[in-house]
Design brief:
mainly alpha, about 65% helix, about 400 residues, two-stranded antiparallel sheet, about 0% strand
């Protein structure tokens, strides 16, 4: 149902511009452009959304993970374009509709994975409410509907898969799950290299002591052939990226943004701004996460809950993002970097909702009203967003005006 709602809403939002939607020169094109270039043009040297190097070479700053995940729907769009007699150039309306369907599908699969994860620890009502709030009361909705070509909806699904597979592996270890972890991990790092931090999940998730961590480490040599197969699949996904960098720059491994002189200032993190600035501050634009983050911190006092691992992973990403030269991750609705991490907050949010459900009637009613209000505000803000809500001209006063408009005041 979530997938159907997201796809239908995305189609309504973009239906007037489907013929141009995929070719709009934004980061979305940066992720998608590999597919038409590789499968239709047969040339990766002439990508349209690139950084031109000093020698004239055209380098995509983006990795191929999103394109790999979009590939099945690209092929579906190609078949539909052939049937409909539309242009088979990778950018016509059938390809756009297929990609809207693809993004909605991945978000739905990620939501389903989170639901399965939550049902191991919470009751069904709390689990369902948590999943619905994560999809519709956070900026995941915006990146599933309004900018579905960005990487965040795909990363949300991949991180959810990592958590679910790890949870199942710790209950009953299988070679299939072992291979899946390698596969999903490779795709996740290709979607956004920073997500290499999620490789800590299989090692640390719900562990209580060093002995348990060492037992997790033994997963990797318990069945060498499964590790070998998983690593081979991961290498198969990583190889095209390395070959592309080698072809364009002569280097096998590359920090692409460094070619533009963009990087990190590790000594001056904007930790407070990332959370509370009017320039895309996470908790300002997604206030639901105030409650989820608080619940995660409280849950962190319990050994083996997974909360400590979630806090470590999120904390590392928080620091890295805060050191980036454009810490506000410009032209974004809210702090889009943390959309990828929403799965880490699902369990504490569900446990909090479970307590609310069994609380006294005034607390239940008040919490329901608050959840409905936050969902409504998020949907309205997503509909009103017009990039960029950042820069020197974007002030608290302008944000307050948008809030008033969102609430029809």
């Amino acid at each position: 149902m979530i997938g159907v709602l997201l796809f239908a809403t995305a189609w309504l939002v973009h239906r007037e511009r489907l013929d141009i939607f995929l070719g709009i020169r934004t980061d979305s094109l940066g992720y998608y452009q590999f597919l038409p270039a590789a499968f239709l043009a047969g040339d990766l040297r002439g990508l349209p959304w690139v950084h031109v190097l000093e020698d004239g070479s055209r380098l995509s700053l983006f990795t191929i993970g999103v394109a790999l995940l979009q590939l099945p729907f690209f092929l579906l769009g190609h078949v539909c374009a052939w049937i409909a007699g539309a242009a088979r150039d990778g950018y016509s309306a059938p390809y756009a509709v297929a990609q809207l369907l693809g993004t909605a599908t991945y978000v739905a699969l990620g939501a389903h994975a989170i639901l399965r994860l939550l049902l191991r620890s919470t009751d069904r009502v709390a689990a369902l409410l948590a999943v619905l709030l994560l999809v519709f009361a956070t900026n995941l909705f915006y990146y599933a509907v309004h900018e579905p070509g960005m990487s965040h909806a795909y990363a949300f699904a991949m991180t959810a898969f990592v958590l679910l597979i790890t949870e199942e592996q710790r209950t009953y270890w299988t070679t299939r799950g072992h291979i899946l972890l390698c596969t999903v991990g490779a795709l996740l790092i290709l979607v956004r290299p920073l997500h290499a931090v999620f490789f800590l999940v299989p090692l640390l998730w719900r562990t209580r002591n060093t002995e348990e961590i060492m037992e997790r480490a033994r997963w990797w040599w318990r069945t060498p052939w499964a590790t070998g197969v998983g690593m081979a699949i991961a290498a198969l996904f990583l190889l095209p990226q390395l070959l592309y960098w080698k072809m364009i720059t002569g280097k096998w491994v590359l920090f692409t943004y460094g070619t533009k002189g963009e990087g990190f200032d590790w000594s001056a993190p904007h930790l407070w701004d990332v959370l509370f600035s009017h320039q895309n501050g996470w908790l300002i634009y997604t206030p639901l996460m105030i409650f989820a983050l608080s619940a995660l911190v409280v849950q962190g006092r319990t050994q083996g809950s997974g909360a400590r691992t979630a806090l470590v992973l999120w904390g590392i990403s928080w620091y890295v993002y805060s050191c980036w030269w454009a810490w506000w991750l410009g032209a974004a609705y809210g702090f889009r970097g943390f959309v990828d991490h929403l799965s880490l907050f699902a369990l504490p949010l569900a446990l909090l909702l479970g307590r609310v459900i069994h609380a006294q009637t005034p607390i239940r009613v008040g919490s329901l009203v608050l959840a409905a209000f936050l969902t409504f505000l998020n949907l309205r803000m997503a509909a009103l967003y017009a990039a960029p809500w950042d820069g020197p001209d974007w002030t608290w006063a302008r944000l307050a005006a948008i809030w008033r408009e969102a609430l029809f005041l």
